[in-house]
Amino acid sequence: MEDLDLSAFGQDVWWIVLVKALLIFVVLVLLTLFNIWWERRVVARMQHRIGPNVHGPFGLLQSLADGVKLALKEDIIPTAADKAVFLLAPVLVVIPAFTTFAVIPFGPEVNLFGQMTPLQLTDMPVAVLFVMAIASIGIYGIVLGGWSSGSTYSLLGGLRSSAQMISYEIPMGLALIAVFMYAGSLSTSEIVAAQDDLWFGLILFPSFVIYVLSMVGEVNRAPFDLPEAEGELVGGFHTEYSSLKFALFFLGEYINMATVSAIATTLFLGGWHAPFWLDSLYAGFNEGYWPVLWFFGKVLLFIFMFIWLRGTLPRLRYDQFMALGWKVLIPVSLAWVVLVAAMRYASTSLTLDTTDYLIGGGAIVVVILLAGFLPLGRREDDVVVDEAPQPTGTYPVPPMPGRAVRGAAAPLTFPTGPDETVPAGTTQES
């Protein structure tokens, strides 16, 4: 990689900085209103319903009407709540969500009101670490919101959410290490520039898949929306919130969806570069304001994926969800990072030809396939049940298993004629 060149940043006049910051704020608020409407319309179509269609053309003003309704609702603070922390928690969720977009590149240098400036508020040599650090602050808002409410349900929801977000930040960070190795930089603009020829989502596909799974768990979206499990926790960490404070939590969730989608676009899908190498047809597709269209098109593609998952997959159990993060994603991420490091070392320090890479890759694939045939973790099909005699003088109870029951349940059998009886241990449905 060439020497890091960030000379284009930090040279703007003060009013250009204010204009770009205001544009980011307005775009994120409008994008949130659109995403809420879009989610309701897409899920309604999946469920053969109409969805919002009254307020505004095609129901586009429905999200604005909902926001006004929330603002006019009665603001309630529980008696047992810690008032200062209770009011601070929604702010700690929303501000980091907005701040993250300060280092996201929306396009190249353009002429903005007569000033040449990059379509990015700022950049720094450790921009991706800045994004990860700022995103972690949002966890404090969720934990403090659940704790300060003085409610057991809110506390459980806050603990669930914090454990979930911390757990899935680990594989998310590990998935980005391979990107840093290939780009040679942690600057977002440099990472986008390194994908001018080939996107990292293609050459680092396992990292891309791990990041996508992690980002769904990070933003508490279905099927990983365990902190808001209605049947268990009523509403999660924001159970006791109402009016504008609840709206801030809602706003933070949808902006976080856009944030992780923008990061995935920047690090894996070439950022603002034209998709499918359209710039080979017309070089102007990567100049001016065209890249803004490509960037938001890729972001909306990820948001559609969020909506699609919500409309198709049921919610996981919490133990399954945590096992996926700690027992699958983290070990796979570590193994992939080691493999990428070895490949980068071999490509830069050793003189290997294409045949050597093919042989090495084939050997790795064979090892993975053989590992799938190992009899690890296979369950026994036997079901052992203690046939203990029923004590006299008490209510009858079903026999208790002597140890953990493994394998499939015993098959049900039903009589096919009037003279047949139902075997012991089975049930007969009327």
UniProtKB/TrEMBL annotation:
Q: Which UniProt keywords apply?
A: Cell membrane, Membrane, NAD, Oxidoreductase, Quinone, Translocase, Transmembrane, Transmembrane helix, Ubiquinone
For this chain, the family text in UniProt reads: Belongs to the complex I subunit 1 family.
Ranges for region Disordered: 408-430
* E.C. numbers: 7.1.1.-
Q: Where in the cell is it found?
A: Cell membrane; Membrane
Q: What do we know about how this protein assembles, alone or with others?
A: NDH-1 is composed of 14 different subunits. Subunits NuoA, H, J, K, L, M, N constitute the membrane sector of the complex.
Q: What is this protein called?
A: NADH-quinone oxidoreductase subunit H
Q: What is the species of this protein? A: Nocardioides bruguierae
Record's function text: NDH-1 shuttles electrons from NADH, via FMN and iron-sulfur (Fe-S) centers, to quinones in the respiratory chain. The immediate electron acceptor for the enzyme in this species is believed to be ubiquinone. Couples the redox reaction to proton translocation (for every two electrons transferred, four hydrogen ions are translocated across the cytoplasmic membrane), and thus conserves the redox energy in a proton gradient. This subunit may bind ubiquinone.
Its Gene Ontology cellular component terms are: plasma membrane
Q: Which InterPro entries match?
A: NADH_UbQ_OxRdtase_su1/FPO, NADH_UbQ_OxRdtase_su1_CS
**PROSITE patterns, alphabetically?**
COMPLEX1_ND1_1, COMPLEX1_ND1_2
The Gene Ontology biological process terms listed for this entry are:
aerobic respiration
Which is an annotated GO molecular function term of this record? oxidoreductase activity, acting on NAD(P)H, quinone or similar compound as acceptor
For this protein, the parts annotated as crossing the membrane are 13-38, 84-106, 126-147, 168-186, 198-216, 246-269, 289-309, 321-345, 357-376
Membrane topology according to the record:
Multi-pass membrane protein
Q: Which NCBIfam families match?
A: PRK06076.1-2 (NF004741), PRK06076.1-4 (NF004743)
Catalytic activity reported: a quinone + NADH + 5 H(+)(in) = a quinol + NAD(+) + 4 H(+)(out)
